[in-house]
Amino acid sequence: MRDQALFDKIDLHLIRVLYTVLTERSVSRAALRLGMHQPAVSAALKRLRDLAGDPLLVRSGAGMVPTDAGLRMVEPASSILRAAEVLFTDARGFEPQTATNTFRIAASDYLDPQFLPQLVAQIKAQAPLTRIEIFPLSGQADYHANLAQGDVDVVVGNWQKAPDELHRGELFTDEVVCLVAKDHPAVRRGWSEEDWLAAEHIAPTPMHPGARGVIDEHLASLSLTRNITARCAHFGLIPAMVASSLLVMTTGRLFCERYLKVLPVKILDCPIAFPPLAYYQLWHERSHASAATKWLRGQVKSAAASLRAPSTTIGA
After folding, report:
1. Does the pLDDT value for residue 315 go beyond 50?
2. Other beta carbons less than 10 A from residue 130's beta carbon
3. What is the Cα–Cα distance from 109 to 70, expressed in whole angstroms?
4. Are residues 168 and 287 in the same domain?
C-alpha cells in the first residue's frame, strides 16, 4: 500500500481530534468537547501537523481558522468517524438500554412546544446512556451540509420543498389558523381577507435575508402580502407577545392550542385558504442504513405521533 508507514501512524482517536479541532476552530473548545486536557489535544494537533506537513489551524485575529488543507480534511474525517460508528454499532446491533451513542437533532420550534421535551424524555427513558444534542435551525445552519458531514443525524421541520437528495419521512400535517388576543377586534366582528391582510402580523425572523416562510410563500403565490409589523427569532415567545397586543400569529393549530389555557388568547380561522402545514424529518443517505439512526428516526416519528390525534397522523 502506498504510504503504508504514514497510514500506520493514524488511528481513529487522532481522526477524532482532527475533526473536532477543525470544526471547533479552537484547541481549548476541542478539549472540552473531547473530554481531554488541553495539552493532550495540543500534542495530538502537533502530530497531525507533522503527518500532514501543514499547520492545519492558524491564527486569524483573535481566533483561529483552518488552512485550505485543513478544510479539505473536514468532510473525509467526518466520513471516517461516522463509518466507524455505523460499522461497530450495526455489527452488534443497536441495544437502546446499553447504547452510548450521541444523537444530534436539528429542529425548529414551530411544530409544538411539547415535541422536543417529549422526544428527549422518550429517548432517555429507552436509551438512558445516550447523549442528546439539540441544534436550532437558523440562518447560519446549513442543515444539508450538517447532515452530509454527520454533524446532525436528523433535521425536523417544515419546508415547502426539501432537497431531493435527502431522505424524508412525513410526521403529520396541521391546519393553518390564527392566534390573537382575546380582546382582539376580530374576535367580536370577524374579518374579511382584506381585514386579515391589513391587520398587524408577527412572523418568525427569516432564516436568511430575503427568505420567506411557508405562510408568506403561499401568499406570494396568490400575489398577496400581509402587513408584518413585528418579527421574532424565538417562535415560542410569540404567543405571549400576541396576548398583550393586536398582533396576529398565523401558524399550525396544534402549536396554538398549547397556549389557550395559559394565555388570554383565542384561535380564529384564517379567511384565506392555506394548504396544510406538513412536518417531516430529513436524513442523509450516509446514515440511512445505520441501526442507531433508524432507531432515532423511529423515536422522532413516535414522539410526533403522540402529540397528534390518530386521524391527523400520517405514515412515514
Report:
1. no
2. 18
3. 34
4. yes
pTM above 0.85, yes or no: no
- Number of compact structural domains in the chain: 3
Question: Using the 8-state DSSP alphabet, how is residue 285 labeled?
Answer: G
229 and 299 co-located in one domain:
no
Chain Cα centroid distance, residue 104: 9
- Domain that includes residue 164, residue range: 100-173+278-312
Average pLDDT over residues 215-231: 95
Strands 277-283 and 154-157, sheet pairing: antiparallel
| Grid coordinates given for 216 | 408568506
Judgement on whether residues 151 and 286 belong to the same structural domain of the protein:
yes
Please indicate, yes or no, whether residues 195 and 247 belong to a single structural domain of this protein.
yes
Query: Residue 303: pLDDT above 50?
Result: yes
> How far is the C-alpha of 111 from the C-alpha of 159, rounded, in Å?
12
Q: Which three cell numbers stand for residue 9?
A: 501512524
Distance CA 39, CA 211 (A): 44
Do 295 and 149 share a structural domain? yes
Say what the alpha-carbon torsion angle 252, 156, 228, 205 is, to the nearest 10 degrees.
150
Q: What is the pLDDT of residues 131-182, one digit of tens each?
A: 999 988 765 567 777 888 778 999 998 876 666 789 999 998 899 999 999 9
* pLDDT digit string, tens, across residues 193-220: 999 999 999 998 876 555 678 899 999 9
Of 79, 111, 130, which residue sits at a domain end? 79
Count of positions (residues) in the chain: 316
User: In this structure, what CATH number is given to the domain that contains residue 136?
Assistant: 3.40.190.10
Q: Is the dihedral of CA 183, 185, 188, 193 positive or negative?
A: negative
